[in-house]
Amino acid sequence: MVNISDILGITTPAEFSALALRLFRLQAERCAPYRRYVELLGINPATITRVEDIPMLPIELFKSEDVYSADSTPEIVFTSSNTGSTVASRHMMARLSDYRQTFLAAFTQFYGNPARWSIYGLLPNYLEREGSSLVYMVDELIRRAGSGGFYLNDYERLIADMKADTKPKILLGVSYALWDLAERHAPKFEDTVIMETGGMKGRRRELSKRELHDILCRGFGVEAIHSEYGMAELSSQAYSTGEGIFRAPAWMRVLVRDVNDPFDHAPAGMRGGIDIIDLANISSCAFLQTQDMGQLLADGSFRIEGRIAGSDIRGCNLLVHDLL
């Protein structure tokens, strides 16, 4: 068995590799969709000795399968946002406390104790539905900060509350809501981090990260826009303090694959599909092939550059039909 304390205690690449291989063998046995996927690939888990050779589960299986590897009934099921005819992903977690420990450890690593901040959440589309892991995370951070709060569309009250607040502040918002706020009011806050979580959700036209961050920098009068990278299917988050360069905690690793050969991982500097190993996914599947496009940098940091065109019919995804 692998415990969350083992995962969050990782400090070296060797520890990461040892726990990743251990967790892979457990989940390849206990997580039914992942076990079937590994079998379809003709892989014997006992023969995998390198982290780079661990097969990555196509993330869209969280929409149709119970991607779960624990014996107990899940304590929480988080769901993704969905638009139009899309189906929401479901992330089943055995223990809510594992998720709480994980996001608190990651936030503290990059931003320190939440108590030193006031945290303001501008997440209208997430607050308007149930089951959001992001809302749970931000709610807990606000509680530990002791100041801040959630805001829907009352921008005037948000601006007034933030300007009256003398603590260092984080304004964490979905991209389209931050753009709306910057465009309509262009508020200038002191001692404030502006952090976007991505997602236009069909509310505004899609922009490149550089274009969006330029708009937000001008609107809020800051030099850089921070970003949070996470998703319903993950337990962990990576953070960027500017220029769209993300860094992940020690128990999370990003690999980049060739979009035409999902079993071939590209070297640093090459663009490709993003694969994520999130060892905090101890009760689901830690090895995920996402539909994001990006670039891995030499120091292990990474960029996200959008979605893969035609991702539903590429590479490993062809095998998904055999699992359904």
Descriptive report:
With 324 residues, this protein is α/β, with parallel strands linked by helices. It folds into two domains: 4-85 and 250-323, Luciferase, domain 3; 98-235, 3-Layer(aba) Sandwich (Rossmann fold). The chain contains ten helices and 15 strands. The chain has helices at 4-8, 13-30, 32-40, 96-111, 124-127, 133-145, 155-164, 175-185, 209-220, 317-323, and strands spanning 57-58, 76-79, 90-93, 118-122, 148-151, 169-173, 192-196, 226-229, 238-240, 246-247, 252-258, 261-265, 271-278, 287-296, 302-307. It has a seven-stranded mixed β-sheet, with helices on both faces. Strands 1, 11, 12, 13, 14 and 15 form a six-stranded mixed β-sheet that branches. It starts with a helix and ends with a helix.
Short structural summary:
This protein is of the alpha/beta class. It has helices at residues 4-8, 13-30, 32-40, 96-111, 124-127, 133-145, 155-164, 175-185, 209-220, 317-323, and strands at 57-58, 76-79, 90-93, 118-122, 148-151, 169-173, 192-196, 226-229, 238-240, 246-247, 252-258, 261-265, 271-278, 287-296, 302-307.
